[in-house]
Write a structure and sequence with these properties.
mainly alpha, two-stranded antiparallel sheet
Length: about 280
């Protein structure tokens, strides 16, 4: 009965998460505004977190597996990884792509670091809302149902990726057809879900995923959207440091595999309290 209730709540959460963005888009269209920071986007970002609070507080899910405690002790190395992984990957991708002529780095300057610094706090706030929903609710609830961890990672990544669809156009700078772009983007989000899910399981805390997501958004989105680098259109599927780039997908998948292997060697490999898992 308990598993049935958890599964029911997970389905409700997923349906709300997948619909809230489209509701937000409708609000924006009715209001005649479609800019970053709109009321519709607020609905899109906040609704999954509010749903999580309702589920945990009043629909029987409880807070045991929320992962709100930082648990820095014994996990300091993983916190360092969460802060530095995406900045390091971004430098690697820029280095490879520029050396092969796929990317023009001439606009890059020290102003980039200033722009990243300005973006960090908003990115952190935004990703508290996002990660408290995905790694703070959906992932741990699916783990408690006893599914294989990779099935959970894929399911979370698939729903998380689809959640982006209503506002995807605001964060994508490409002339590529969505027919080829979206499947690659979904693959990139799924491999990120593996990485974030593994670090969640290792630390038993949602905070490393929050920090990893925040630094990734600040470094990568600033680089692309502020045009500090210019990716050649014909090589964008390879060279973009964002989730849809092939190099980015490969590096993120390798990082997730490394985290999985590391986890297998740790004392936490049987799953922390509230996170019974298989695989």
């Amino acid at each position: 009965m308990k598993d049935n209730k958890v599964l029911r709540n997970v389905i409700i959460f997923s349906l709300v998460a997948l619909s809230c963005g489209w509701i937000g888009r409708l609000v924006d269209l009715q209001a005649g505004t479609d800019e970053n920071g709109s009321l519709g986007q607020l609905i899109w970002i906040v609704s999954p977190l509010l749903t999580m609070v309702i589920m945990r507080s009043w629909m029987g899910d409880g807070w045991e597996d929320f992962g709100i405690k930082p648990r820095v002790k014994g996990n300091a190395f993983l916190y360092i990884i969460s802060l530095l992984l995406f900045p390091f990957m971004t430098m690697v991708i820029v280095g490879i792509s520029s050396s092969l002529g796929w990317m023009d780095v001439s606009p890059l300057s020290f102003q980039y670091l200033t722009a990243v610094g300005i973006a960090l706090v908003p990115s952190l706030i935004k990703n508290i809302f996002e990660e408290f929903a995905w790694r703070g609710y959906l992932a741990p609830k699916l783990y408690t149902l006893g599914y294989n961890r990779f099935i959970v990672h894929i399911a979370v990544g698939f729903i998380w990726g689809m959640w982006h669809f209503p506002y995807l156009f605001l964060f994508v700078d490409t002339t590529e057809s969505m027919i080829t772009y979206i499947p690659r983007m979904m693959l990139g989000v799924i491999v990120m879900a593996v990485l974030y899910g593994e670090i969640l399981l290792m630390t038993r805390s949602v905070w490393p995923a929050v920090f990893m997501h925040a630094t990734g958004n600040a470094f990568i989105d600033t680089l692309i959207l502020k045009k500090f680098v210019l990716v050649q259109a014909e090589f964008s599927y390879l060279a973009m440091p964002s989730p849809e780039g092939i190099i980015s997908i490969i590096l993120t998948a390798l990082a997730g595999l490394w985290m999985y292997k590391r986890r297998k060697r740790t004392k936490h490999r049987q799953g922390p309290p509230g996170f019974p898992i298989k695989g």
